[in-house]
Each structure stands twice: as structure tokens, then as C-alpha cells.
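User: Please fill in residues for this 391-position structure.
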């Protein structure tokens, strides 16, 4: 049940999607190209994996704390716009620090600022769905939230490839983040959060939030494990020339199919009033795609695997936000609880390099890594029957 009745229009949804694209570009441009290249320059081929793991782990740890704190502050202020603005400024500052980083400490500091900062607008954007979007539109708008993230992945990657993996790549991303977010600040107005006790009775749905959190965590871990060493996988295992360009190609294929599947799935999930079938399909396709990456590391198969991973991720993100907002226990703590939910998206960034680094360097390499990733996707599928509150 939802307290929101008025439907959102195309103008609002467009501005919302552009803001999310900007935030995702600020995150994933560095993760896919800029940070790996910077780690290789600072630590060399022998130490690049360890340095990247260290920096991304520190950033993810900071992110894991920052997101719930931004959510708590947003609920206390009863406002989303100040959180969006303050976090964006902090994240841009971190990108500029990274643009001049020439030591491990400066690189880690810059990435921590990016992670802490960009969690502010992320928390605000997630809460806006619960504040402003009625239940029968949450599949569509939630899909926009997810699809915009993957469009931001390709945008951030494209910027890094086009401008270069040095300082100017970070500067270009730092410009893109606020430029894309500005439209939302013009069209969004904070609305007062009506006390749930005054309007309807909200009951904690039998621990459903915890199961939804765990499924989100597992599937985000799958996505993080696919991305974290993609550049190195393509160069060292598939042995392509110009690995950065191939990262862009694989990412474009992935995003294209994820975007189609995500938006179509969101619309269909609203029309059918079904969410679980899309989560199940996503988990199965993610398992198939990562298994192919593990077993057949040749370019045509990797491209096919990226299609499967893209469709699988799209099927899941089509309903991810609709699922999470459905199982929230209280309207007055919406941003706080969604901040906790977002930890399920940021914690995998912390764990992915920690899990991947020893596997890649000595415990079976990329075949073991991607078979483990497939098994994690299937574990999420096995938990899905626990979400009894959903259809």
C-alpha cells in the first residue's frame, strides 16, 4: 500500500533519469577505466590488482556508512534537495582530487570522497520514489532508476575512453555529474511526509525487508564481480588488444540489452502486478552469462555472455526499487531504511575486490571467479520464495 496517489509525468521522470545517469557516470567511469588505469600507473603490472582492491575497498567501506547516514539526515530534515546538492558537491570534489592523485594515499582519499559524496544524491533519489511515485508506477520509475544507472555506466566509460584515462578523464566526469543532475533540482519540490499513523496502518511485513535486502546484496555482488576486474579479464584472460576499448564495447552491449530488458520489465511488472518472476529470470540469466565467461574466454562468447548478463541485470533492476519500497515498514523512515537497503548495493563493492583478488592471482584465476559469481546468482534465486509479501 502507498500514501502517494498522484502519478508522475514524463518531465519529472526525464529529469529523474538524467540525474541518476550523472551519478552512475561519476561512479562507474572511475571503477571501469580510470581507477584501474591509475592503479596500473602507480603500482605497475605486479601490484595493480592489490592497489585497486585496496582503494575500492576503502571507498566501499566509506560508502556503506555514508548512505544510511545521508538517509537519516534526509528524514530528519524532511527534505531531499539539500541532501542531493551537498552530496553532489562532495562527490565532484573527490573526482577533482583523483584527477591530481599521484600517490596511493591521495588516490584513496579522492575515491572515499567520491563514494561518500555520491551516496547523498543516491539516497535522495531512492527516497523520492517512495515520496512521489504511486505503487502502480513504481515498476516503471524504479526501472528508470536502474536503467539510468547502467546508461551512466556506459557514459562514464565512454568519457574515460574518449578523454583519456589520465587527469582529464576525471575532470570530464566531474563536469558531467552536476550537469546531468541540475534538471531535477529545477522540477523537484520536496513534499511533506505524511505520518503513516495518521493515514494508514503500516505493519512490518514479516521480515520481508531482510530477505529483499539479502537478495539485492547477492545480485549486486554478482554485478560487482563482473565489473571489478573486467579490464584485466579482457587483457589477461581473453587477451584482446586495446583492452580499454573492448571494455567499452562489452559495456555498450551489456547496457543496451539491460536497458531494453529493464525498461520493458518495469512497464510489464506494473501491468501484470508481478515482481518475483522478473527477479527469478534475472538471477538465472546472470548465472548463465557468468558461467560462459568462466568457461569459454573467447571474444564472440564473451559478447554473447554480456548479452545474457545485460538482460539478466535488466530484468532484476526492472523491479528492484519496486520490491524495496514495497517492503518498507514505515513512511516516516523511508530515506533511512532505503539507505540501509542501499548498503546492499555498496557492500558488494567492498567485498568484490577482496573476494576476487586472491582468486584471480592464485586460487583458480578467472574461471573460478566467474563460476563463483554464477553460484551467487543461483543463491539469490533460491532465496526468492522467502519474499511471501510479493507476487
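Assistant: Residues filled in for all 391 positions:
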Amino acid at each position: 500500500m502507498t500514501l502517494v496517489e498522484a502519478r508522475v509525468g514524463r518531465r519529472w521522470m526525464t529529469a529523474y533519469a538524467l540525474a541518476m545517469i550523472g551519478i552512475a557516470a561519476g561512479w562507474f567511469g572511475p571503477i571501469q577505466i580510470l581507477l584501474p588505469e591509475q592503479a596500473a600507473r602507480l603500482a605497475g603490472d605486479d601490484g595493480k590488482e592489490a592497489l585497486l582492491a585496496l582503494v575500492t575497498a576503502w571507498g566501499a567501506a566509506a560508502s556503506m556508512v555514508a548512505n544510511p547516514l545521508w538517509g537519516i539526515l534526509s528524514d530528519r530534515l524532511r527534505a531531499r534537495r539539500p541532501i542531493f546538492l551537498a552530496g553532489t558537491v562532495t562527490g565532484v570534489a573527490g573526482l577533482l582530487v583523483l584527477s591530481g592523485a599521484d600517490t596511493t594515499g591521495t588516490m584513496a582519499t579522492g575515491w572515499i570522497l567520491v563514494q561518500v559524496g555520491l551516496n547523498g544524491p543516491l539516497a535522495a533519489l531512492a527516497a523520492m520514489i517512495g515520496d512521489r511515485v504511486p505503487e502502480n508506477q513504481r515498476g516503471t520509475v524504479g526501472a528508470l532508476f536502474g536503467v539510468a544507472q547502467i546508461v551512466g555506466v556506459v557514459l562514464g566509460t565512454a568519457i574515460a575512453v574518449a578523454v583519456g584515462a589520465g587527469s582529464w578523464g576525471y575532470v570530464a566526469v566531474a563536469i558531467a555529474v552536476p550537469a546531468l543532475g541540475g534538471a531535477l533540482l529545477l522540477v523537484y519540490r520536496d513534499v511533506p511526509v505524511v505520518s503513516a499513523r495518521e493515514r494508514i496502518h503500516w505493519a512490518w511485513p514479516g521480515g520481508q525487508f531482510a530477505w529483499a535486502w539479502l537478495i539485492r546484496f547477492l545480485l549486486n555482488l554478482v554485478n560487482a564481480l563482473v565489473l571489478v576486474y573486467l579490464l584485466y579479464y579482457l587483457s589477461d584472460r581473453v587477451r584482446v588488444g586495446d583492452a580499454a576499448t573492448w571494455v567499452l564495447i562489452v559495456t555498450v552491449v551489456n547496457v543496451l540489452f539491460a536497458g531494453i530488458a529493464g525498461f520493458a520489465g518495469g512497464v510489464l511488472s506494473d501491468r501484470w502486478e508481478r515482481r518475483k518472476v522478473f527477479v527469478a529470470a534475472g538471477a538465472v540469466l546472470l548465472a548463465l552469462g557468468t558461467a560462459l565467461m568462466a568457461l569459454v574466454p573467447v571474444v564472440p562468447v564473451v559478447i554473447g555472455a554480456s548479452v545474457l548478463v545485460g538482460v539478466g541485470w535488466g530484468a532484476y533492476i526492472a523491479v528492484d526499487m519496486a520490491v524495496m519500497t514495497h517492503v518498507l515498514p514505515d513512511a516516516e523512515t523511508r530515506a533511512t531504511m532505503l539507505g540501509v537497503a542501499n548498503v546492499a548495493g555498496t557492500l558488494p563493492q567492498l567485498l568484490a575486490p577482496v573476494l576476487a583478488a586472491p582468486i584471480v592471482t592464485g586460487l583458480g584465476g578467472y574461471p573460478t571467479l566467474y563460476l563463483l559469481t554464477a553460484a551467487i546468482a543461483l543463491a539469490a534465486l533460491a532465496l526468492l520464495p522467502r519474499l511471501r509479501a510479493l507476487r
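For context: Residues 194-206 have pLDDT under 50 and may be disordered.
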